[in-house]
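Take a minute with the sequence and fold tokens given here and flag any structure token that looks odd. Thanks in advance.
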Amino acid sequence: MQTPITVTALNNQIKTLLESTFLHILVEGEVSRVTYHSSGHLYFTLKDENSSISCVMFRGNNRNLKFRLEEGLRVIINGSVSVYTPRGSYQINCIMIEPAGAGALALAYEQLKKKLEAKGYFDKEKKKSIPRFVNSVALVTSKTGAALQDMKRVAAKRWPLVKIILIDTLVQGEGAALAIAKNIKRADTLGVDVIIIARGGGSLEDLWAFNEEIVADAVFGAKTPIVSAVGHEIDFMISDFTADLRAPTPSAAMEMILPDINEMRIYIDNLFENYDEIIKRVLQKKEESLKHLFYLYKQNNLLSKIELFQKETADLKNRYESYLAFLLQKKENSLKDVAFSLDESMRKVLLLKSDILLSLHRSFENNDPSKKSKKGFAQIVKDGKITALEELEKGDNIELLDAYRVVEASVTDKRSC
């Protein structure tokens, strides 16, 4: 009869058998139930249409994983089978994980790009503008790289006035991402106008440090405008999308942010010419304004007003004298006419009066009492008027006149003959 063994002994035998038999395996499946533990270990389940198996990737290996496991992702696992004796369970101990059908770096790139885009790292309205005239630049790059020499050469030719501050930085390999992020933060404290993070061309693996999230965080958080100039024109890094300006190459970065000194010389010459023309126009305009003001001053100052009033007074005096002379001449002419007319009128009046006087004289002669007086005849005067006899009434007081005497009488009786 077989002697029984303990559960622990059985699990140990199974562990020895499985771990020695499945020491190196490659398994493809779909990721499910992913858990990133606070310890740094990664736990998930790998499954296909009919089965599933537990998997673990310990912290040491997990640190080298370039992408992030997501639900439903299809992967290829390189590892071994391990048995957890206390529970009698087995799992795959993952050494490496690669995406099925796509490279790990390409997947990690897309995952991080999508994540940062969702956080607003690529929003155009959050980009800082590059100053028109850059006086100082901080270069976050390797002091031994060709990129540094290319940038210095372009700067010396294009705008030698710029001040360049080099911050020697590890740009490739282990620890490069951390070094880049640290030096970006350092450059941000120097008060420069622009920060350029740069590296020459290379493979995706060589340039990978610029695709790390820590670098993207440093670029996005900087207060100084940042230009990303990594690799060649065909290379697009995460830092390119996060930076305020992307340059296709390091030398192109200098060309993009620095003015051309020859163009500036021409520009300054044109400015001086335009300045001269503007000054001439301004002076001419001011001269015209000054002349106009001087004219207004002459027209409106006290002496000018006095002269004007004197001139107006003299003019009025001349006009008055002319008008008075005209009136006098007119009156003189009228007086002559009046004198002539008066003479004519007086002559006519005298002639008329002479005729009347002559007529009266004749009448007087004809009515002279001395000539008319006859014995027994007298004029009857009542109340100073010659009155006919038939007009008298009884009691009237009358006067009887002839050529020589006046007799007062009274009517005592009146009767017809």
The chain has a mean pLDDT of 87.
